[in-house]
Amino acid sequence: MADPASYRPAPGTIPTSPGVYTFRDTDDRVLYVGKAKNLRSRLSNYFQDPAHLNPRIRTMVHSADHVQWTVVSSELEALNLEYTWIKKFAPRYNVMYRDDKTYPMLAVSVKEQYPRAFLYRGPRKKGVRYFGPYPKAWAIRETLESLTRVFPVRTCTAGVYRRHEQLGRPCLLGYIDRCSAPCVGRVSPSQHMELVDGFCSFLAGGNTERVMRDVRHEMEGAAENLDFERAASLRDQLGAMDSAMEKQSVVFSDNTDADVIATAGDDLETAVQIFHVRGGRIRGQRGWVVENATGDSDVTGEAGTPALLADFLTQFYGQSAELSDATESAVGGNSRAAASREVTLEPVPREILVPVDPDEIDDIDGLSAWLTDLRGARVTVRFPQRGDKKALMDTARENAAQALRQHKLARVGDITARSSALEELREALWMDEPPLRIECTDISHIQGTDVVASLVVFEDGLPRKSDYRRYRIREAAGDGHSDDVASIAEVVRRRFQRYQQDKTAVPAGDDAGDRLEGEVSAAEAEKGAKRFAYPPQLFIVDGGRPQVEAAQQVLDELGVTDVTLVGIAKRLEELWVPGDEYPVIVARNSPALYLVQQIRDEAHRFAITFHRASRGKRMTRSVLDEVPGLGPKRRSQLVTAFGSVAKVREAGEEAVAALPGFGPKLAAAVMAALAPEEHSDG
């Protein structure tokens, strides 16, 4: 790998003008494309200490052989050129936003003589208009079933169309008036295109209310003229349109034209969700999960959000504009089809709502100007902070979080992926065999108080919750502050002391960690003892080098030599091995790192759950609970009458005895229970 210092340009030779730069390898292949308002300032960031670079960028600068740049006259030109080159070269180190192939869409093949409406999955193609994506395929089928009652457009495949064209008779949909039957010449191409225009316009929200109003007036007119058969047919059409509209939630009362973009992520990946809102309704939703290009994280855990949004807006709307232009060219001189483009989803809406302050996005002014140029009208980028739009942003963010969670679960849920992760973990840690049993511990506390620990167990890459353990840490630090190193050492000692002392013993109580309540019956206890008694192949501690060294010292004292120990540090997701000065760096997109992260996160979740439960019990426990003969009702009566336990002490035995239902004997028992608390310092 090349040393970046070997090809670093002299600082004085780099211009300070706006421009686009490319990092290239020895074969002159483009590895990365970027833009800058000031090329000299931006490029100097890539040649700093590699330890301070994001792992992706660090790998890129070491893989590159030289850097080139092109000066342009403005930031807007730099943005356009960057987008063009990313599309042309597809650089491996740029974040690429590709269509999610799993979501179904409703497509209309506008380039055909008789356009067809159909369900579609896959990348978008030229000459086809898309509506959605929809969350489920059945939603598209129901929408088609409803709208073809009003707009009987063609839905059959090319083979079915040609067969019935040769037969000279329509299919069943043509007989029941759910298709205009262009195959047998019932309608001309222009008449069918009118139906397609109405169909697309209705879905895009451009004339929803007008179409429904016209149908309603026609129905009322037919009823007045005593044409009840026609009125009934129009009534059914209104019902079908209402049914189709119910599938799209009303989010605003006004005619809002906006895209809502939300993100959720961690240090490695970020999920992006976009909601298309047209005419006050959500017309579509799309999602991506991408690897972070930067290592910056804000307090919400959305890594590199401003930089990610700049890349996303450029690629997404640039591609949408290209597809829109291609669609317009495909319909050619058909004026009616070209006119209908105005009422479909615009590639760039009037308003783009983002999850951060737009001023934090790099070159937001140039980006807004570029978006305005694409749309041909003013485009506003802003951050909603209150009202319905803020609520919709929260909904989009929750969808992004769910998408990220499902993505990570899918990585470890498949047996092939789990096997690959375990094998990669074996290679990274120089183990003889893949770690089929992995245990991980984590500490939870609040400023050194109520310190507890968790121990989670994974076998074959899946959690074995019956083997989870919980520990209350006994050795608290003397200064009252947290000592995670000592706590980790205590958990390791207690876990492996039990293993050394009695390999068949059933861990019970606080000495060996508490078994999860309600998960293992008494009959399973002895069977589970041996399952927990044998050691793991890999033991993970949540922490860096100090925690790993402390745990290894305990294992050495106990003579445990058949367990591989490793720690995972949260800051850079590094793996620390005992005795090594430097951490083990695993690829950020590695299945092995995903598995270790999942195990660490599960240990963290379990520790926090136990800590909250323990703290809640301690906070709700009262000295009055120990008074014989004082039930919950009397305890509540006592506290209500005096206000607090301290005021009960101050009131005295006579005041307590005077309460209804009490008496001298119960009052004496209450005061006897409170007396040690009152004189504990004497």
TrEMBL record:
CDD domains: GIY-YIG_UvrC_Cho (cd10434). The keyword 4Fe-4S does not apply. Residues 16-95 form the GIY-YIG domain. Residues 209-244 form the UVR domain. It is found in: Cytoplasm. GO terms for molecular function: DNA binding; excinuclease ABC activity. One of its GO terms (cellular component) is cytoplasm. Residues 260-555 form the UvrC family homology region profile domain. InterPro entries: GIY-YIG_endonuc (IPR000305), GIY-YIG_endonuc_sf (IPR035901), GIY-YIG_UvrC_Cho (IPR047296), Hlx-hairpin-Hlx_DNA-bd_motif (IPR003583), RuvA_2-like (IPR010994), UVR_dom (IPR001943), UVR_dom_sf (IPR036876), UvrABC_protein_C (IPR050066). Signal peptide: none annotated. Keywords: Cytoplasm, DNA damage, DNA excision, DNA repair, Excision nuclease, SOS response. One of its GO terms (biological process) is nucleotide-excision repair. It comes from the Bacteria. It holds the Pfam family UVR. Gene3D superfamilies: 5' to 3' exonuclease, C-terminal subdomain (1.10.150.20), GIY-YIG endonuclease (3.40.1440.10), UVR domain (4.10.860.10), UvrC, RNAse H endonuclease domain (3.30.420.340). Coiled coil: none annotated. The keyword Hydrolase does not apply. The UvrABC repair system catalyzes the recognition and processing of DNA lesions. UvrC both incises the 5' and 3' sides of the lesion. The N-terminal half is responsible for the 3' incision and the C-terminal half is responsible for the 5' incision. Belongs to the UvrC family. Interacts with UvrB in an incision complex. PANTHER family: UVRABC SYSTEM PROTEIN C (PTHR30562:SF1), UVRC/OXIDOREDUCTASE (PTHR30562). This is UvrABC system protein C.
